[in-house]
Amino acid sequence: RAKSQGGNCWVYYDHDDDERRRTAQRLRGELERALKQKEFVLYWQPIINLHTGQCVAAEALIRWQHPERGLLLPASFMDIAENSPAMLRIGAWVIQEACRQGNQWAEQGFLLDIQINLSARQIENHRLCEELRSNLNMCPALLPERVCLELVERIALRDIGKTSRLIQDCQSLGVSFALDDFGTGPAALQYLLELGCNQIKIDHTFVIPMTRSQRHQDMVRAMIQMAHALGVSVTAEGIEDEITLQLLQTSGADRGQGYRIARPMPAQEMATYLGKQK
Ligand code: C2E
Ligand code: MG
Ligand code: MG
Ligand code: MG
Question: Within 13 Å of residue 174, how many CA atoms lie on the same side as its CB?
Answer without folding.
Answer: 12
